[in-house]
Write a structure and sequence with these properties.
single chain, about 170 residues, alpha/beta, 6-stranded mixed β-sheet, 6 strands, about 35% helix, globular
Length: about 170
Protein backbone atom coordinates (compact mmCIF):
# COMPACT_ATOMS: atom_id res chain seq x y z
CA UNK A 1 0.00 0.00 0.00
CA UNK A 2 1.08 3.57 -0.71
CA UNK A 3 -0.25 6.84 0.69
CA UNK A 4 0.15 10.09 -1.20
CA UNK A 5 -0.13 12.76 1.50
CA UNK A 6 -0.92 16.26 0.20
CA UNK A 7 -1.23 19.57 2.02
CA UNK A 8 -3.93 21.82 0.58
CA UNK A 9 -2.84 24.58 -1.80
CA UNK A 10 -2.66 28.33 -1.07
CA UNK A 11 -5.94 29.54 0.46
CA UNK A 12 -7.49 32.83 1.49
CA UNK A 13 -5.74 34.10 4.62
CA UNK A 14 -6.99 33.03 8.02
CA UNK A 15 -9.04 35.86 9.51
CA UNK A 16 -10.22 37.26 6.17
CA UNK A 17 -13.53 38.98 7.06
CA UNK A 18 -15.18 37.55 3.92
CA UNK A 19 -14.83 34.07 5.50
CA UNK A 20 -15.74 34.25 9.20
CA UNK A 21 -15.73 30.43 9.44
CA UNK A 22 -12.23 29.02 8.91
CA UNK A 23 -13.72 25.87 7.35
CA UNK A 24 -15.10 27.96 4.46
CA UNK A 25 -11.82 29.54 3.30
CA UNK A 26 -11.32 28.64 -0.39
CA UNK A 27 -8.18 28.42 -2.48
CA UNK A 28 -6.98 31.68 -4.00
CA UNK A 29 -6.70 32.00 -7.79
CA UNK A 30 -2.92 31.76 -7.33
CA UNK A 31 -3.36 28.61 -5.22
CA UNK A 32 -5.56 27.02 -7.87
CA UNK A 33 -3.11 27.89 -10.66
CA UNK A 34 -0.01 26.74 -8.77
CA UNK A 35 -1.58 23.47 -7.63
CA UNK A 36 -2.79 22.66 -11.14
CA UNK A 37 0.85 22.88 -12.19
CA UNK A 38 2.06 20.93 -9.14
CA UNK A 39 -0.48 18.18 -9.81
CA UNK A 40 0.94 17.86 -13.34
CA UNK A 41 4.28 17.22 -11.64
CA UNK A 42 2.63 14.46 -9.58
CA UNK A 43 1.28 13.00 -12.81
CA UNK A 44 4.80 13.13 -14.31
CA UNK A 45 6.00 11.12 -11.28
CA UNK A 46 3.48 8.43 -12.18
CA UNK A 47 1.15 9.04 -9.24
CA UNK A 48 -2.17 7.29 -9.94
CA UNK A 49 -4.31 7.01 -6.79
CA UNK A 50 -7.24 4.62 -6.82
CA UNK A 51 -8.93 6.57 -4.03
CA UNK A 52 -8.74 10.21 -2.96
CA UNK A 53 -9.71 11.07 0.61
CA UNK A 54 -10.08 14.71 1.61
CA UNK A 55 -10.71 16.80 4.68
CA UNK A 56 -14.20 18.34 4.51
CA UNK A 57 -12.81 21.90 4.66
CA UNK A 58 -13.32 23.81 1.41
CA UNK A 59 -9.64 24.44 0.66
CA UNK A 60 -8.75 20.75 1.02
CA UNK A 61 -11.72 19.61 -1.09
CA UNK A 62 -10.76 22.05 -3.84
CA UNK A 63 -7.18 20.77 -3.76
CA UNK A 64 -8.42 17.17 -3.92
CA UNK A 65 -10.62 18.03 -6.92
CA UNK A 66 -7.67 19.53 -8.80
CA UNK A 67 -5.57 16.46 -7.97
CA UNK A 68 -8.33 14.15 -9.16
CA UNK A 69 -8.92 16.07 -12.38
CA UNK A 70 -5.22 15.86 -13.23
CA UNK A 71 -4.18 12.35 -12.17
CA UNK A 72 -7.40 10.32 -11.87
CA UNK A 73 -10.27 11.91 -13.83
CA UNK A 74 -13.68 10.61 -12.87
CA UNK A 75 -12.55 9.20 -9.52
CA UNK A 76 -15.04 9.91 -6.74
CA UNK A 77 -13.73 11.85 -3.74
CA UNK A 78 -14.25 10.55 -0.22
CA UNK A 79 -14.74 13.26 2.42
CA UNK A 80 -13.30 12.31 5.81
CA UNK A 81 -13.68 14.38 9.02
CA UNK A 82 -10.62 12.61 10.52
CA UNK A 83 -8.46 14.72 8.18
CA UNK A 84 -9.51 18.03 9.72
CA UNK A 85 -6.85 20.09 11.51
CA UNK A 86 -6.14 18.59 14.93
CA UNK A 87 -7.58 15.16 14.12
CA UNK A 88 -6.27 12.12 15.97
CA UNK A 89 -3.66 10.20 13.95
CA UNK A 90 -4.92 6.78 15.11
CA UNK A 91 -8.43 7.69 13.95
CA UNK A 92 -7.10 8.85 10.57
CA UNK A 93 -5.20 5.57 10.14
CA UNK A 94 -8.26 3.50 11.14
CA UNK A 95 -10.33 5.21 8.44
CA UNK A 96 -7.75 4.28 5.78
CA UNK A 97 -7.11 0.68 6.93
CA UNK A 98 -10.17 -1.01 5.41
CA UNK A 99 -9.44 0.22 1.90
CA UNK A 100 -7.82 -2.35 -0.36
CA UNK A 101 -6.55 0.15 -2.92
CA UNK A 102 -2.86 0.03 -3.76
CA UNK A 103 -2.49 3.84 -3.69
CA UNK A 104 -4.63 6.29 -1.72
CA UNK A 105 -4.24 10.07 -1.86
CA UNK A 106 -4.97 11.94 1.38
CA UNK A 107 -5.51 15.72 1.28
CA UNK A 108 -5.39 17.66 4.51
CA UNK A 109 -3.93 20.49 6.56
CA UNK A 110 -0.82 21.45 8.45
CA UNK A 111 0.21 20.48 11.10
CA UNK A 112 -1.89 17.31 10.68
CA UNK A 113 -0.23 16.17 7.42
CA UNK A 114 3.25 16.59 8.87
CA UNK A 115 2.39 14.87 12.15
CA UNK A 116 0.46 12.08 10.43
CA UNK A 117 3.40 11.44 8.08
CA UNK A 118 5.73 11.20 11.09
CA UNK A 119 3.25 8.86 12.79
CA UNK A 120 3.30 6.60 9.72
CA UNK A 121 7.10 6.62 9.53
CA UNK A 122 8.11 6.45 13.18
CA UNK A 123 5.01 5.42 15.14
CA UNK A 124 2.86 7.03 17.83
CA UNK A 125 5.71 8.68 19.71
CA UNK A 126 6.94 10.58 16.66
CA UNK A 127 7.16 14.35 16.85
CA UNK A 128 7.68 15.05 13.18
CA UNK A 129 8.54 18.46 11.91
CA UNK A 130 8.59 17.58 8.21
CA UNK A 131 8.13 20.65 6.05
CA UNK A 132 4.94 20.55 3.99
CA UNK A 133 4.49 23.86 2.21
CA UNK A 134 1.02 24.56 0.79
CA UNK A 135 0.61 22.16 -2.14
CA UNK A 136 3.48 19.86 -1.08
CA UNK A 137 3.15 16.08 -1.33
CA UNK A 138 4.83 13.00 0.14
CA UNK A 139 4.64 9.35 -0.84
CA UNK A 140 4.77 6.83 2.02
CA UNK A 141 4.96 3.11 1.17
CA UNK A 142 4.07 0.11 3.34
CA UNK A 143 5.19 -3.47 2.66
CA UNK A 144 1.68 -4.62 3.58
CA UNK A 145 -1.30 -2.90 5.17
CA UNK A 146 -0.95 0.56 6.68
CA UNK A 147 0.70 0.34 10.09
CA UNK A 148 1.88 3.26 12.26
CA UNK A 149 5.68 3.25 12.24
CA UNK A 150 5.76 0.78 9.34
CA UNK A 151 5.97 3.26 6.47
CA UNK A 152 8.94 4.23 4.34
CA UNK A 153 9.22 7.73 2.93
CA UNK A 154 9.75 7.36 -0.82
CA UNK A 155 9.80 11.12 -1.38
CA UNK A 156 8.62 14.48 -0.08
CA UNK A 157 8.39 17.24 -2.67
CA UNK A 158 7.61 20.89 -2.18
CA UNK A 159 5.27 22.56 -4.68
CA UNK A 160 8.01 24.41 -6.59
CA UNK A 161 9.76 21.09 -7.28
CA UNK A 162 6.49 19.53 -8.41
CA UNK A 163 5.85 22.47 -10.75
CA UNK A 164 9.39 22.10 -12.14
CA UNK A 165 8.69 18.42 -12.90
CA UNK A 166 5.67 19.57 -14.88
CA UNK A 167 7.98 21.77 -16.95
CA UNK A 168 6.48 24.97 -15.59
Amino acid sequence: MKLLIVRHAIAVDHGDPAYPWDDDRPLTPEGIHKFRLASRGLKALGVRPERIVSSPLVRARQTAEILRDTVAPGLELTIEPHLEPGADFDATARVLLPHPEETIAVVGHQPHVSGFTGFLLAGPRSHSDLLFKKGAAALVAFPGPLQPGGGTLEWLMQPAALRALAGE
